[in-house]
Fold each of these.
Amino acid sequence: MITFSNDHFFDFEKQARPIKSIALIHKNMKPGGVEMLVVRMVKWLSARGYNVTLFLFSSGGPLLRQLETVKGVTIIVDEDTTDPSVNMWLVTKMLRTRFEDKFDLVYSFGPKSFLLSYLLPASKRLSGVYHPESYKQERTEKVIKTLKLIDPKFHTRLLFMNPSIQKMTEKAIGEPLNNSIFPMPLDFCSNSETQGNFESRRIVSIGRLAHFRTYNYYMIDIMEELIQLDPKFTYHIYGSGQDEDDLREKIANSPARDHIVMHGDFATIGDKKRALQDTFCFVGMGVPLIEAAGCGIPGITAKINDPFGLTEGFLHQLPPYESGDSFSADSELFSVQTQIEKLLSSETEYRKMSKRDRIKAREFESDHVMENFIKEAEIKDFSFRLH
């Protein structure tokens, strides 16, 4: 058994100081939205001279290849093919750092990695919340109880991807949260490049095929109506997941089946860029929606667990930092099909929606987001805001 004094083990240095050494903690680097966030953060920090150490507490993953040649980055991982919940070799490595210099900042990406972050010596400790149910009690009850035990103010060190996730986390842990919003830092096409095309009839959705992402299903029904308006319409689905077989079956039984293509996962980043070229509009949520809008493609926002094809509208109509994966009960809702037909009404209307969505996407521009993240992380007061 390991025994320790809280005064020694969890000491916090509140003196404001420039941040140079940063530890990031995550489970693995298998394909996913948070994993791509880790890649973006590591590359951005490295390019600006920060010393980055990435701890992966379960195993590696294919996205590690994107970090192999990045300078100034140390990756600590045990390529365990059994994919354990927590790799004990890694825990031992983290414990040994207790006798080394403190990291200026330790940042984690979920409840379990947040708990493990307390094994590392840190001047400041923060953790991001990227899913509305990350701190839902039945999912992480033991982790939350342990966090409260070792750090009663752990909730003041949380950052949230958007305000909706903040509200749901507040409800889950039963504490008022006035913490910061740290949106996903993203890179877009150059201002001179526009991938949206009014003349095109190509509609795209990108995302993991999961039960709560219902837009892939109702878009099949909508396509049956759209091809009556213009037989050139096609719908392109990128991604894989547990609902793939059910989705293929629904497509096979649809009169619009010859107009719908399931492409699977992207092999390279270049494949993703090519998938957005010459696109009429995007239907979906989260990072792919923002990336499409940032390249001049009108983005129609989807809702989770919605079988009826309803939307709050285009990306620019959402509250700050929201990206369609959650919605307010007071929001006015529209038909997704109606929004598509709205884009069809005139090229002037199309260009207006494209421009407004592109401006909205700039909230997530990587330099803007990451510079604010570093600036605010250097402030000694834990109650700070990024917007």
Amino acid sequence: MKKILVLFVLMLGISINAQTTDYQRIIDSIGQKKWDSISINIDSLANPRLVDVKSLKRDEVKINNSIVIVPNTDDSSPLTPSSILTLPTLKRWFIFGQNTLVFNQSSFANWYAGGNNNIGVIGKVNYNIVYKKNKHYLDNNIQFGYGFVSSTGQSTRKTDDYINIMTNYGYELAQHYYLSTGFQFLSQFTPGFNYSSTPDPVYDNRISKFMAPGYLNLGLGFSYNPNDNFQIILRPLNGKFTFVLDKKLQTKGNYGLERDGQSLRAEVGTMMNVLYKIKLFKDATYVNQINLFSNYLEHSERVDINYSGALNLKFNKYITTSITIDVMYDHDQIQKLQRKQTLGVGVTYSLGYKVERDSKPGVINPFVK
């Protein structure tokens, strides 16, 4: 009986061992196929190839679709063309605007040193409307400003008045370089007076008004715009047209007119415009802009110079201080240096969107550091 039991256990063990071997063979076959599919070909290491894996900094996003728009931050400085030109996937209109209202006021009651009650207001709007698609770029800039001061015992006097409309079309020739063409229109809203000679002027005392003068510049050339803070526009072929549509002001020598009754003066020359913005510290910027024009046809050495500088100080999201200076020299108008300076504290409200970009193509910073 014992022999039969031992023989049975031996046969059972042999049978189990045979089945385990079959199962193990199947498992080993599956494991080998898996290994073959993921194993590295050692021979390929003889010719290694490096792959550039791009990394993103913290708080950055990768542009994968046609456009990424980031809501405007506390930075209220004007939009510059570079922030749009180098975004490779922008295919829509981009609008950014600033609205500024500046106040100044003083009041006196039994003040021994004397003084006049007065109040002054200056309103300004500055809008950029930009379109970029592929290598084509269109920039429209609209600037309006008007201000007055009213004092006891004096008539209301104008302190600021301008219309400045610019349109520039660019075609990208190379990185930061563009074929550029466009126009600029300059004039004012209401009549201007010389308050030194006529303290209480009437309309007949006007020395300027809308389209008297009015300026139109048309040109073709190139522009260079490497970053948000620097831009040069050079137009070797530029037409400058001066309009004086008020018959009273159409006298020889006035605004460069060559004869009495002349309403339009045309000049052809070269124009250069340079924009340079300096960030003094976090909430203070100084914007320099100079425009030069030389007439090919007459006295090319007499260069028209127009410089404007603006120091913008920001206290919070809405309260700002602005100090501006404008210096102009035009030999055909008056052979003296013309100067205008303003200072004011006011409220600025910005509309639209603004994008700060990283130096790497296709990467933008969604937050202003």
Amino acid sequence: MGFEKEREREDTPLLGNGRPLSSQFKTFANVFIAIVGAGVLGLPYAFKRTGWLMGLLILFTVAALINHCMMLLVYIRRKLGVSSIGSFGDLGFAVSGPLGRFVVDILIILSQAGFCVGYLIFIGTTLANLFHNPTMTSSLTLSLRHLMGVSPKSLYIWGCFPFQLGLNSIKTLTHLAPLSIFADVVDLGAMAVVIVEDVKITVEKSPQVVAFGGISVFFYGMGVALYAYEVVGMVLPLETEMKEKEKFGKVLALSMLFITVMYGSFGVLGYMAFGDETMDIITANLGAGVVSSIVQLGLCINLFFTFPIMMNPVFEIMERRFWSGMYCAWLRWVLVLAVTLVALLVPNFADFMSLVGSSVCCALGFVLPAYFHLMVFKNEMGWKQWALDVGIVLLGIILAVSGTWSSLSEILS
């Protein structure tokens, strides 16, 4: 159960080459790729719920706290001086033994699988909106829906299943890395198109918007923001790869600031363009034009190919624990089936984002880093640092309980 050499690290930076030679710009790119994903598409809807000003305050607060907690993990590894600490799970083992690694592993499984559930919900919902036209739907599709008693969204999710079994049977993360870079390029292109459309619509219509949505939606907004920023598990391999490690904190902070400004602009512009009509996936507001359809199809394609990349940490942990670290195709297929079944049961993309963010992402992003830091530095810290660590742990627990309750209430209502 020690720091044995594993056949494939679950958290290797996708732009890395296995040597600590990354420049500052390359580290910036790695951070960007690790953070930016489908979560940004739910931000305008979250801002509709929280209000645009409250949404911005939540976004910047979460970014600052996540940045602080990521650096706590870096400080812990430097303090312990154990070269074999290469991942969050390794750090959990070094601080709290087998229980520490077990807790981190469980949370990583839940968070990564949760992201993949969100991907399938997005794909199913988007394709259903694009192609579910009664005058265009084929008689075969209508017959299948009648016989199976499922919605168009469910049909598209099931349609992904056999192809995902094949993609998730690929053994090494290296072969999948280019797909992640492609996915981020598509994400940026989609964001650019959406922002341009948002500005045009805002100028033409200027719908009514609110600045504060009330305290009742605060925890919901925190959950969505945490989902959009979940990158804590990547910080240690990112720092390992950087050549000038003393500058890692500065590069990480600048990366987080840049991404937060981009997220905030996207969320505010999306909400201000559509107001109360803002949908849980902002691309659904773009209508049925050619450009809109291309953007939505492109996002579906990139999430389809990102799915096996995000599932890779789940496979690595499960195979390490239950199959002696060896490749196991049937175990992977069972996990893909489980994720698919959960996606079929969840009705709303943004609500599910909030649920994942409020529960597992909150524990990974806030509770564990502050707790591990407290355990390692408890004899060296002053009362201010003690208070800060304890405060973050308590904040994380409160947010996890309240946010999970709020999100489940929305999903089940």
Amino acid sequence: MEFDNTSSRLAELNHAQALRNIPIVVYLGLVGITGCIGNSLVFYIYASIYTKLNSRIFLLFLAAIDWSTCVIDIPLEIITVLNEYNFQDTLLCKFSRTGNALTTLYAGGVLLAIAVDRYLKICRPLGFQISNRTAKLLCIVLFFVTFLLIWPEFVMNGLKTVVIKGEGLNGTECSIEDAYQKSAYPTVFKFLIFILFTATLSIMIFMYCLIGRKVRFFVLKNERRGSQSKSNGSLDSTENLYDVSNIKRLQRTENSNAAAMNEYVHVSKSNSKDNVYTTYDSNDSIDDFKSMDSQASEIGAIERKRPFKIQLSTTQLDQIKRKRTLARNTTYLMFIVTSSFIIAGLPYFILIILNHATDHFVLNMNPGGRVVYGFFLRSYFLGATVNPIIYSIFDRRFRHTCRGLARNLKLRICRTEQLDV
């Protein structure tokens, strides 16, 4: 009889807490629905329309991660929120916590790969570049490495006994199970994951700082030599040097990135009237010419003491400028995506630090405080739905493609209605 009363009271307390957690459920539901639709749209557009964009591989994997978060992780999280005092399914808890850790860390790894890809294209245009095939292989390897890192989550998570404040009753929640509460393994594991994640974020920030510095350098150089460029219709010699040196790479790489800072151009061999001449000083970046033997037949012999001229048409110059503008926009877009990921996860990390630094941090909270705590503890889910919104705001091509798909859908609906009539 006493057991029945305890179970009944525990069910009442769990139901009351579930009602208080309705704002969290609504938040998770909106994030899940919006993210599922948005990431499905992103996956369709980048998989079937932007087939020649090199960064699309990373964006596709990122959309797949966010989609799985919205479809799998968020529904499981809603179940845990609605059973905060009376969670009973150990296996469901293990899958929920492991899935959250897997998608979050994997998303961080893909964003790190994007930062490296942007760095290579902007700051090291003459060196190694990540091709589509390499990008696929890298994302697959990252997935298995992430899985190997987070497998202890599946082992250590389960049912944890919690004391309900003011009731003298013990409930169960989805967390580190009782068998590992007094063990040092959970603390060591979470500390290592925290260090790894912090290092990843630090590397990404450092990469984008280098990229920003490089972009600023080219902008200032273009402004400083703008009058000279306008007078002779040519580009800066160093920038043209990078363009010419990448001719063969464009021919070798079938899916070259159209958004690189120093895109590839073809040297005009004709003597048409729209050709313009660009003069190079042979003392300028002479070491960069050492690897250009394969281009000697096209651009002529390189002399250390005499300047030489390369013929570039005005159409090619305009194409270079457009692609460089696209490169800066693409890099800026990736930077915003990375920043949103960091901002979305920041409240979670702050609460985790406070929880470990303060004794009984959650236990001393009142029911309303637990709701606020639970809301911000799940802020990182927001990162799974903001990327499609960022693309629609900052990527003009993505926005126009969405409008075109909406118009086509509207026309199909109208035609279907006319046929029904």
